[in-house]
């Protein structure tokens, strides 16, 4: 996977209430620090300036978090009602998050009995009965 940039934001799903994006590894979700040159918040503003909400702290309503080094699906609520619904789903544990780590072992590593972690993927699934 190529390094993240403001242009390469992958959209997994979009409805009138939610946007699910594939967050790149080593990209913060949001930041107010000037030194953060790339964040998911900046990618969203670049790709969807019309969706930015000035009434929110970061311009978007992130439904959950992914660590800086974790790549995978991240859900963004597109309105206040959808954000409330997603919040309740997470609070009541009606949302399933699954983590998948892909492991690759090369022949040279096999002789040393060491493992190489190639990449990680995250998947967040919002159940239709939930939202």
TrEMBL record:
Family annotation (Gene3D superfamilies): Pseudouridine synthase
UniProt GO BP: enzyme-directed rRNA pseudouridine synthesis
GO MF annotation list: pseudouridine synthase activity; RNA binding
Domain Pseudouridine synthase RsuA/RluA-like per the UniProt entry, residue ranges: 17-104
Pfam families: PseudoU_synth_2
PANTHER family for this protein: MITOCHONDRIAL RNA PSEUDOURIDINE SYNTHASE (PTHR21600), RNA PSEUDOURIDYLATE SYNTHASE DOMAIN-CONTAINING PROTEIN 1 (PTHR21600:SF87)
Family to which this protein belongs: Belongs to the pseudouridine synthase RluA family.
Name listed for the protein in its UniProt record: Pseudouridine synthase RsuA/RluA-like domain-containing protein
The species this protein was found in: Macaca fascicularis (Crab-eating macaque)
